[in-house]
Design a protein that fits this description.
Blueprint lengths: L1 E2 L10 E5 L2 E5 L1 H5 L3 H9 L7 E4 L5 H13 L10 H11 L10 H13 L3 H10 L6 H4 L2 H19 L1 H7 L13 H4 L5 H14 L3 H15 L22 H14 L10 H14 L3 H13 L6 H4 L13 H18 L17 H20 L7 H10 L9 H13 L5 H8 L9 H8 L6 H20 L6 H8 L8 H42 L3 H16 L10 H22 L1
Parallel strand pairs: 1-3, 2-4
Antiparallel strand pairs: 2-3
Helix pairs in contact: 3-4, 4-5, 6-8, 8-11, 11-13, 13-14, 14-15, 15-17, 17-19, 18-20, 23-25, 23-26, 24-25, 26-27
């Protein structure tokens, strides 16, 4: 039992129990200032009430002792650490102006108004102490006062230091080295209070990049591994043992909902991917995960390969989370489709060609996905269907050259020798033999892991290239066919007509791009061949004839494989004549 230190020469006449601790006090100074104690004493059947218990008093015994000192007129200091406890305890004890002038409620309110709300740092400190005082702190208005004070003071700080921030980063991008000092202070708040502070900051006009920096710091403080490349390793990405998984889930979902919606605000991709990895780990709701994927997809052309290597959270699944990457690609393609203006036809559909920004983004993502496929291909647990889903999600124009795709498929075939012949054919059909470089074509012809039909197609198209090189033709006949098919039909609607023209235009320009890539190779080959023919007359004819005989014997694209040599020569002659007629018509 704690005896009262005031009027120690007068015996106490009432014992008050708070939080298991007993205080031997005097009724007169208590009932003169506390309405609650006055009512309990007055309502007691025993006129000589000697013991009173106060249940659930905010702040506990320590705060009650300060309130008692106030009742006895003993001086003590009100600080940011105890003012919220005193205000809530005074509300519980009903220490208002009705019982005493300048009672404890008014004294605490005066301190809040004149000291706490004038300082961002003190407001944060008081708000953090309110976590243990709910719902009383909310009811008496301490929480809303501190939240508004933090937002207003942050806005003032930003206005004062605006010039220094402009000098800090002329590009306007987020620079963590020069963010406001209060960013670190806010990380001590509980997530529900923090959410209200950020919302208030937006209302008072705090810059979006400052809010982003604040969110990043809070995430890095409350969660481990956010924004670091090491989080791809599941062994390093562990939940905080001091925090329940449900609490971590709430933190991730809340932080994602607070991210700025302004597209001009730069959010580091490493942070977004770190949040996505953690979101998968704590199993956040679908809306949160989709929002992160949408934001990443908006910047997918800027993503690195390491970012895409998201670890799978399922023990029985493959090493990397392929489904998430597939959804990122779906969102990316939807974004590309939305960025194409509906009225671009009036400006001419030439703007939708290879020089457009959207097409350049698709090409970058195409190269990124080729590298990603090669990285995940060696995983023995990677399902063929998931691998194919990543390949076929991107349009054909996303790859000018298929060398990277061929390399990834070859790695997958090597790592999965148990694939059936039909499965291998199903996988290899996505390789366009006309989009393989000379080096890749040579490798395909000697690769015994591929279906035989694949090698035959490569040899066939190589023969066509050689014939075109000797005849001087600039194409292989497919270009003229596409041009003729690009004429719009009068039966089509204007919208469908435009869509058809845009697709044809894109295909034709992609064909031109591939032809340019081939040009350097063909020029070198033609130069070497002509030089050889000049040195050895008849050598070129013999070389071309030998290749034609080899293709004729295969018999996949032409007549029967068992045809006689004479028929093969006849077929060769007709082919040469057709080639000459085609060259004459194109000229």
């Amino acid at each position: 039992m704690k005896p009262c230190r005031i009027f120690s020469d007068v015996a106490g006449d009432i014992t008050i129990v708070v939080g298991g601790e007993s205080f031997l006090l005097h009724k007169f100074p208590l009932v003169s200032r506390s309405g609650k104690i006055r009512k309990k004493v007055a309502d007691s059947r025993d006129s000589n009430l000697a013991k009173l218990e106060l249940l659930n008093l905010p702040g506990g015994p320590q705060t009650f002792e300060l309130a008692v000192k106030f009742c006895y007129g003993t001086n003590f200091e009100i600080t940011p650490e105890n003012v919220a406890n005193l205000r809530c305890a005074a509300e519980y004890l009903e220490m208002s102006e009705d019982y005493w002038e300048e009672n404890l409620i008014s004294r605490a309110e005066k301190y809040l108004k004149e000291v706490v709300v004038q300082s961002l740092e003190k407001s944060v400190e008081v708000l953090s102490t309110c976590e243990a005082l709910l719902p009383t702190a909310e009811e008496v208005g301490i929480v809303i006062k501190c939240v508004d004070a933090i937002a207003i003071n942050a806005s003032k700080e930003q206005l004062v230091s605006g010039l220094s921030h402009l000098n800090c980063d002329e590009s306007g991008k987020l620079n963590m080295d020069c963010t406001e000092w209060w960013v670190e202070d806010l990380s001590v708040l509980r997530i529900d209070f923090y959410q209200r502070v950020i919302a208030a900051m937006r209302r008072t006009g705090v810059r979006a990049d400052s809010i982003t920096a604040c969110l990043m710091h809070y995430a890095q403080t409350s969660q481990k591994g956010i924004g670091k490349r090491e989080v791809w390793d599941p062994s390093r990405m562990k939940l905080d043992s001091t925090m329940a998984e449900d609490e971590q889930r709430v933190i991730v979902e809340t932080l994602v909902s607070l991210l700025p919606t302004d597209k001009s605000t730069s959010i580091p991709l490493s942070f977004l991917f770190g949040m996505l990895r953690l979101a998968n780990l704590v199993d956040v709701n679908i809306a949160c995960r989709l929002e992160l994927e949408r934001r990443i997809a908006y910047l997918l052309e800027m993503v690195s390969l390491d970012d895409l290597l998201i670890p799978s959270t399922q023990p029985s699944d493959c090493v990397f989370d392929v489904d998430t990457v597939h959804r990122l690609l779906v969102n990316f393609l939807q974004r590309i489709e939305e960025e194409e203006p509906e009225d671009s036809l009036q400006y001419g559909y030439e703007s939708e060609g290879l020089g457009s920004t959207s097409h350049a983004s698709v090409l970058k993502v195409g190269r990124l996905i080729e590298a990603y496929l090669a990285e995940i291909a060696p995983d023995p647990c990677l399902d063929l269907k998931k691998f194919i889903n990543i390949i076929e999600i991107l349009p054909d124009y996303a790859r000018v050259i298929d060398d990277g795709l061929y390399r990834a498929i070859d790695i997958y075939l090597k790592a999965h020798p148990a694939l059936t012949e039909n499965e291998s054919k199903q996988l290899c059909k996505y390789i366009d033999c006309q989009k393989l470089s000379q080096e890749a074509s040579n490798h395909v012809a000697q690769n015994d892991r591929l279906p035989v039909q694949m090698a035959v197609r490569v040899l066939y198209f190589e023969q066509l290239r050689l014939k075109n090189a000797f005849s001087g033709s600039s194409g292989d006949g497919f270009l003229s066919q596409r041009i003729s098919s690009g004429v719009p039909s009068a039966a089509m609607s204007p919208r469908d007509n435009y869509a058809s023209l845009r697709r044809e235009n894109r295909e034709l320009k992609l064909e031109v791009s591939r032809m340019r890539v081939r040009l350097s190779e063909l020029e070198k080959e033609q130069g070497f061949m002509k030089q050889g023919m000049m040195e050895k007359p008849g050598h070129g004819k013999t070389f071309l004839t030998s290749i034609s005989k080899g293709i004729g014997r295969i018999g996949i694209f032409g007549g029967p494989a068992g045809g006689r040599q004479k028929a093969g020569r006849k077929s060769q002659g007709s082919e040469v004549k057709k080639g000459r007629r085609r060259r004459h018509s194109l000229s």
